[in-house]
Amino acid sequence: MMTIKKFKNRKWLICNPLPNTSTSCNKDLNGGYGTWDKIGNNLLSKFIARSKKSNIKIPVLCLGYIRAILEEKGINCNYSENIEESKKIIQNDLIEAVVIYGSIVCCDLENKFISQIRKLNSQIKIFVVGTYPSKFPEQFKKSDYVIIGEPENFFMNWSGNLEELSSKGKNLISENLNNLDLLPIPIFTKEFSKKFSYSPMLTRPTGFIEATRGCPYSCGYYCTYGENQGKLIRSHSPERLVYIMQELISKYGFKSFQFRDPVFGLKKGFIEEFCLSIIKSDLQCQWGMETRIDLLDESKLRLMKKAGLKSINIGIETPNIEVAAANKRKICPDDHQKNIIEFAYKNKIRINAFYIMGLEEDNLDTCNETIDYSLSLKTYMARYSVCTPYPGTKYYDDLNKENRLNTKDLSKFNQQELVYKHKSLDQIMINKLIQKAYIKYYFRPKVIWNILKENIKR
Predict the structure, then answer these.
(1) CATH topology for the 198-456 domain
(2) Is the pLDDT of residue 457 over 80?
(3) DSSP letters of 46-102?
């Protein structure tokens, strides 16, 4: 990191503009492109959507890092997720610059906010960061700068002088960090951090952190994580990670942590070293992760459970071998999948399984097969989404060449709307399938009781 003098009396605004809707919008998900859970229009679907919004609140992690980096340089930062509140901050304070997180699901809203900033004060410098603007900087034409790549590295190496950027052009290239231990401990506004939640999987408030970035798997054909983070696995040391968790608990009172790694534990020996570091430190907190189920075995689960593991997100997507093959997806052997889920269930490790409707070669029968399979497993939660070809992936490019995209409206690329021409399914059928899946899964006595228990604890 570049050594620089600290500046005085400088104020920036860091903003993650969110829509004022009854459904859950979390931009840190889906490789940073964001998700927006528009489940359906009937009363039960609306109830589930509202419940997800009240229980799932995830910060955009890179904004916490950026704030810590800027404040280390002596720049005071405000944080907001509401456009009207942000406008008041700009009007009442001498804001020098605004950092906005750009996403695919709220691209229109973010650009509208940029235009409003221009009208309020044309002298304010506007930076847009995020994985989506890194791929498509032209979508944010009215901003001053778009940081291409991981924004933390840019701000860590920036001198703090805005004038020096005028000669560098609009698109500021930033390389990926090779060593995550160089990152500072993220800074959050306590008004927001006390609401961070991944309930009912974990006890709230939940801190969101990452152990690694990067994914070497071939899923990059359709997945935004590997496409944007690269194939090289870059990580924190286990000791640094435990220290970060201790500091965040001390500062924000987090009772649990959810790791935001696309695949936790890919680096050989990392899980064992991390768990032993937690046990040695006597850190008492729950934590959850997302990984591939074929990377898990009973011995690892026992060790992780001893170190505080409470929940695991896994992508099952479809149980149909032919459908999976048609989508360049590899299915975990059914016996291993069921055995690991059964073992986790017996050891009170909560499994949250992800399923996808509307994959290539899917039809009503295969989608219903997916629903029935999801009901047969002893998972704690389930999420159902629609197959979405994201701009920047080879899958999107192929569909575009075949003239199979239904829309270029970016807000519809939210994992709940069918945006391409499917051979057997249409939007109405998809809506009914998604609603059916959520209702059949969540309106079961045991699932309802699990959710109620966690909300009673609040």
Answers:
(1) TIM Barrel (3.20.20)
(2) no
(3) HHHHHHHHHHEE---HHHHHHHHHHHHTTEEEEEES-HHHHHHHHHHS-EEEEEEE-
